[in-house]
Design goal:
The protein is an alpha+beta fold and 720 residues long. Among the domains are: 74-264, Rossmann fold (3-Layer(aba) Sandwich), CATH 3.40.50; 459-608, Sandwich (Jelly Rolls), CATH 2.60.120. Helix content is 16%, strand content 26%. The protein has eleven helices and 29 strands. The protein has helices at 18-22, 26-35, 93-107, 130-133, 148-156, 166-176, 200-209, 225-237, 248-264, 652-657, 692-706, and strands spanning 74-79, 113-119, 137-145, 183-189, 214-221, 242-245, 271-272, 285-286, 289-295, 310-320, 325-332, 345-353, 359-368, 378-385, 403-412, 421-430, 433-434, 459-460, 471-472, 478-484, 487-495, 500-507, 519-526, 542-544, 551-555, 579-587, 598-608, 616-617, 661-662. The strands form seven sheets. A six-stranded mixed sheet has the order 3-2-1-4-5-6, with helices on both faces. The chain has a five-stranded mixed sheet with strand order 7-9-16-11-14, with no helix packed on it. The longest helix has 17 residues, at 248-264. The radius of gyration is 26 Å and the shape is globular. The two termini are 19 Å apart.
């Protein structure tokens, strides 16, 4: 059972098969992806009806929210009003702004999706021109794949002359961005709106109410207190960030940092779902897969002083199967880093309940106050063996092992309490397995592995912004990337049964101007179901941006083994599943008056150990562990004990056949519980039967794949 705990990455804490189908060819992979049966390796190719009687009702089969296929679409809005002709940057402000945009474009990653809007270039600043000037907003570059030459040419022709219609410009920018999925605006202005109404802050609030996926970051270039307050309000209203720039060099750096953060902030995704505020038959049933809900509020300001106070609370239903291991995680990202020191707690708690309300298991994750790492998400995971006897007393006798369970998710704490937050809900069900002949569970932490050395040559890498797009790393290869203060970078490494992971991460610079005393950096390790994994570097912090290389190194302390779930040491149970393990590099922020900055790092990982025998899942089980939920599957061509396919981002046809959410407990595809799951990279669950002909071919592919089950093949445990 999972006990409530605090996110161990807090200083105050006490302490992921699509790649495997590639080698079979695209046709085979496509067939398997639509016809794979939800049965274990040793079961026959027939559908199994679980022990849940669905209600008769209409079903909902939502499409997955758009995946982050490259980077977050971002519109840069540039002030070209008359005041930008002031010659104090030094030199004209507009020239400094144009140089900043040109430099930005030159250094952006090739997969960036950037657009450019300017206002104030088509009129003068006289009163007679105000009506026209307040609609003088031009899209120079539509949001799309980065075109450096075209964008640079467009910037060259900008001339400053007119009004400052910030509110209308924000509306235009929002309209020019995609209507769904994460998107961002970066606004650079040297003064207040001169055209209100609409008031810019009100526009920002209206845009935010249309969805949680739009964030606006602002840069004030040589602004006065009134303009600073207005630009800060715009950013605050959307969970964005504000920075001051007092000269040309600072403006260039601030713009780079803002866009860098905008295109890579945490990308929450999943099948849209809305939980109920009470546990009823109307609560959505979540088949194995990944889902996305919105939790409107935390606790009221100041309430944390009187004890824990819950905000939005929602209920869902999940299928249960006797002897299976049920994994449910809830990941909630904050709106942005919190250098200002907003007080209170930011937390999420999950409880698995029987339908009579009895508590069966729970998990909790939170952090409190402002420790500089408040940009990181909180993620709680329940890992529950649905068996009253294994281990004895671990799963309460009053709780069901078959049928339906109730999952209650609570957002709590006053930190960011008035801002709605997305919550990713990931459901996995791993069938029972035969453990005879498997290596025993780890009983104690093993000594740390040797520090992975850095190679002379390094491959460029852009670390992911979340678990969903973690950058895949190859054992023994050195990579080089950049990170901004107040930012996380995610990486994934496939581990087979019997293997451990070691890492080295080091700042190599050069760092841009920023914190003068340095800021903390740290690395956290997570397993395929988003549980934090104990490592020898778990509590290590290095000081970056201080002129000296800060080395972070560590290794997991136990090999990945199925039997570890029965270890007497709770910290070792988190290595109970094979698949994609995650590294998260987090860099601190240094207070609200310290400018954001970026630096370069290098990273090497090493996978240690020969693959061991994996489990044999029992005949007659209704489902199997699934493939990776990473948008980039692990580089392997076979499977250990499973064959659940993973479709890539944007495969909406397959997603439409899986990831079913039903308000009454009915599968949206087959009408049975537990035989469908969400697809795409956000987290496939059990695949569904796609028709008799496809079933025959799919069954053959299953047999081909899972026949390799116990031969130490690449990992495919239940993953997020």
């Amino acid at each position: 059972m999972t006990r409530p705990r605090t996110d161990p990455s807090s200083p105050s804490s006490p302490r992921r098969l699509s790649a495997r189908l590639r080698r079979l060819g695209p046709v085979a992979a496509a067939v398997a992806g639509s016809a794979l049966l939800a049965v274990p390796a040793s079961a026959s190719a027939t559908a199994v009806t679980p022990a849940v009687t669905p209600a008769v009702t209409s079903t909902v089969t939502p499409a997955l929210s758009p995946a982050r296929t490259t980077s977050v679409p971002t519109m840069v809005v540039l002030d070209a009003s008359g005041s930008m002709n002031e010659s104090d940057a030094p030199g004209p402000r507009i020239d400094a702004a144009k140089r900043a945009v040109t430099s930005l474009v030159a250094g952006l990653p090739a997969d960036s999706r950037i657009g450019l809007i300017v206002y104030g270039t088509g009129t003068g600043s006289t009163r007679a021109e105000k009506s026209t000037g307040c609609t003088d907003i031009r899209t120079l570059i539509p949001v799309g794949p980065l075109d450096r030459a075209r964008t640079t040419d467009a910037v060259t022709g900008i001339r400053a002359s007119g009004y400052t219609p910030i509110g209308n410009a924000l509306r235009s920018a929002a309209t020019a961005l995609p209507t769904e999925g994460p998107r961002a605006i970066v606004l650079v202005s040297d003064g207040i709106d001169t055209c209100a109404p609409p008031a810019p802050c009100n526009v920002a609030k209206q845009l935010k109410r249309q969805g949680v996926d739009l964030t606006i970051h602002t840069v004030g270039f040589k602004v006065d207190p009134t303009a600073r307050a207005q630009l800060s309000c715009i950013a605050d209203a959307t969970g964005g960030t504000y920075s001051d720039a007092g000269d040309a060099d600072t403006l260039e750096q601030a713009l780079k940092v803002k866009v860098d953060y905008a295109i890579s902030g945490y990308q929450a995704r999943g099948t849209p779902v809305t939980g109920t505020d009470q546990p009823t038959d109307a609560s959505p049933r979540l088949a194995p897969g990944q889902y996305l809900d919105t939790f409107a509020t935390g606790a009221p300001a100041g309430s944390d002083r009187t004890g824990r106070v819950s905000g939005t609370t929602k209920y869902y239903r999940v299928p249960l199967q006797q002897g299976a291991t049920l994994y449910v995680s809830a990941t909630m990202p904050p709106p942005a880093a919190d250098p200002g020191g907003t007080g209170g707690t930011f937390g999420v708690q999950m409880t698995l309940q029987a339908e009579d309300g009895s508590t069966c298991d729970s998990a909790d994750a939170n952090y409190a106050g402002n420790d500089g790492y408040s940009h990181r998400p909180v993620s709680a995971t329940m890992s529950t063996v649905l068996d009253h006897d294994t281990p004895p007393g671990a799963y309460p006798g009053r709780c069901p092992v078959d049928g339906v369970g109730v999952v209650k998710i609570e957002r709590y704490g006053a930190k960011f309490g008035d801002q709605s937050r997305p919550v990713e809900i990931v459901v996995r069900s791993e069938p029972p397995a035969e453990t005879a002949g498997l290596p025993p569970a780890a009983t104690r932490a093993q000594a740390g592995l040797a520090r992975p050395p850095f190679a002379r040559a390094a491959t460029a890498v852009t670390g992911g912004s979340s678990f969903n797009d973690a950058a895949p790393l190859t054992s023994g290869q050195t990579y080089r990337g950049t990170v901004v203060t107040g930012e996380d970078r995610y990486f994934s490494v496939p581990l087979r049964w019997g293997q451990r992971l070691a890492y080295s991460v080091e700042e190599v610079g050069p760092a841009s101007d920023g914190p003068t005393t340095g800021v903390g950096a740290r690395v956290s390790v997570y397993n395929p179901v988003r549980q934090d994994v104990r490592s020898t570097g778990q509590y290590q912090t290095a000081i970056w941006f201080a002129g000296n290389p800060g080395l972070l190194t560590g290794s997991t302390v136990a090999p990945v083994r199925y039997t570890n779930r029965s270890s007497s040491q709770p910290d070792l149970r988190t290595t109970q599943v094979d698949g994609l393990y995650y590294l998260r590099l987090s860099v601190n922020v240094d207070g609200e008056d310290s400018p954001a900055a970026r630096t370069t790092y290098r990273i090497t990982v090493v996978v240690d150990g020969d693959p061991e025998t994996g489990p044999a899942y029992r005949p007659g089980a209704t489902g199997m562990p699934t493939g990776s939920a990473s948008s980039t599957p692990p580089p392997s061509d076979a499977t250990t004990a499973t064959a659940g396919p993973t479709t890539g981002p944007g495969d909406s046809a397959t997603a439409g056949a899986t990831g079913t959410v039903d308000a009454s407990g009915t599968s949206g595809t087959s009408g049975t519980t537990g035989s469908s799951g969400s697809s795409a990279s956000s987290g496939p669950g059990w695949a569904v039967l796609g028709g008799i002909a496809l079933a025959a071919v799919g069954g053959a592919l299953v047999a081909l794949l899972v026949g390799r089950a116990r031969r130490g093949q690449p990992p495919t445990g239940p993953q997020t």
